[in-house]
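Lab intake sheet, docking and co-folding queue.

SAMPLE TYPE: protein with bound small molecule
LIGAND NAME: flavin-adenine dinucleotide
LIGAND FORMAT: SMILES
REQUESTED OUTPUT: full 3D complex as structure tokens
PRIORITY: normal
SUBMITTED BY: R.K., bench team

The fields below were copied directly from the construct record.
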Amino acid sequence: MNSATARETTLSNLRQQPEIPVLIVGGGINGVGLMRELALEGVDVLLVEKGDFCAGASAAPSRMIHGGLRYLENGEFRLVRESLTERNRLLQNAPHYIRPLPTTIPIFNWSHGIIAAARKFFGSYSEPYNRGAVLIKVGLTLYDLFTRQQRLMPTHQFHSYQQSLARHPRLNPEIVCTATYYDAWISYPERLGLELVLDAEALHPGARALNYMRLEGGSGDEVTLCDELSGESFTVKPKVVVNATGAWIDSVNGALHHDTTFIGGTKGSHLIIDHPDLLAAVGDEMLYFENADGRICIMFALLGKVLVGSTDIRVDDPEQAHCTEDEIAYILDSIQQVLPGINVQRSEIVFYFCGVRPLPAADAHTTGQISRDHSCRVIPPSASIQYPIYSLIGGKWTTFRAFAEQVADQLLAHFDQQRLRSSHELAIGGGKDYPSDAEAWIADLSESSGVNPARLRTLLQRYGTRAALIAQYIAAGQDSPLQHHPDYSQREIAFILREERVQRLDDLLLRRTTLAFQGELTPPLVRELAALVAAARGWTEEQTRAEMDRAQHILSTQYGVQNLERVIDHA
Ligand SMILES: Cc1cc2nc3c(=O)[nH]c(=O)nc-3n(C[C@H](O)[C@H](O)[C@H](O)COP(=O)(O)OP(=O)(O)OC[C@H]3O[C@@H](n4cnc5c(N)ncnc54)[C@H](O)[C@@H]3O)c2cc1C
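RESULT FIELD (auto-filled):
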């Protein structure tokens, strides 16, 4: 079912049939992960998201799919073990977007940090800093031990001073050595989230998701929803509500007459930097390093640019969270800790982003000490609200499947239903039937579709094996490259608009493609894409201008994209 029909059908069903067993509120990774898990078991479920899917914290991670070396200092062995298992599952179930990432830690002394780490392990306030080789060796050995039964990637290695500088010549010469271990990274988190939605809907016709549908309130056995696109209100009657709204959990519980303080969010920002020397210095490894204050920062090459982050600052209102100039300065300074000869200018930042981690409310002395584990808090039915509310607190991108599986089990027990299937080996979206020999797959597809191999290589890298669907769609009509970004084509974009729930122009610019993320948007390109969305959605000229205005505003205020002021003027 294409996107427009899918939305209309779901809305029309809601008007006629307001009863739904499970209402999931929030279309971040935790909400969509749970939706897929329930769909797998044939449970009817409606997911509503006030904006676009995976546009909150789930669009703002450091893009690490990792065990969380740092969490060992907090004694969170269970979490690290679970994260490593899930990392390995994602490498197998989503190989199109999750790939191994060799990670190098620059080390500046041999033995420092052991006492502070031990104190932290036992709950002390002090954050270890200047972690030395011995401490890092202990952590990496545990990391390797946890994955010894399912070894997908090499174990860690230490490199001497000379070896380290030979591998990374621009590294700070004050290091004593480096250690390299393997984790993984995710190239397109927003697309993987969308694929989970599409998979869930394909698995079970009773599983539906609506973006731009906000929970407004509720009472008795009802929940009120508002269609953010049309303004229409809907009343639904769920048996269970799952509050998967991340940093918004307490405000959504408040709208359902429950005063909770489950969340103590912290914001984190990242920069995307266009700097050839930095790109070359980082190479194909992630640098995982301490900033001057002992916080762990990361940088790695991503789609031809360098991702650097992040910050960790307490915030009360997720709607107000944005990347500030102070955070930019902090992150730029952090580069100096490891690559002191490389000077990055403010103007070389092509994009930045900020998200709020939905961490559990905690009175930890430092934000780094707050657990990154997940939990589900259940508010039982009461006189004012007759359904239970399950709030999904915390979690990481890496562990979404495990979290979803655990909550689904709780819900299945609630409905007295046995689990029938497991998602352990369930491939996601374009990770299905992912070829071990990409070139042979491309050659076959080229022969059957007539699309040239170079183009298919790009499509495979962008969409995994969904590239086959796109190639068929491209082959079925007259296609041409976009005038202002020939690397994309008209029918490729048309496919996305038809199949991938694009409601607003910014969905396409920010989440279905990486054009904004890579700093590749220009006023003519935005106008060209707006015209394609307008044609697909039947927008008037006025609506199209309003969408361009909105996109330009969001891009400049939230993502630091400043070159688009003239989008509207020249339309
Ligand atoms: C800076 C940063 C770095 C991170 N790095 C990593 C990393 O490298 N690796 C890793 O594994 N994890 C990482 N994480 C953690 C991970 O991204 C989050 O834990 C995860 O995305 C949380 O998902 P969520 O679905 O709970 O929340 P969100 O993604 O925030 O989703 C909640 C959704 O609820 C919606 N919503 C709110 N109110 C309503 C309403 N009234 N009606 C309908 N919908 C509503 C919001 O619009 C939002 O989309 C990072 C997080 C941050 C912020």
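REVIEWER NOTE: The chain has a mean pLDDT of 94.
SIGN-OFF: pending second check by T.M.
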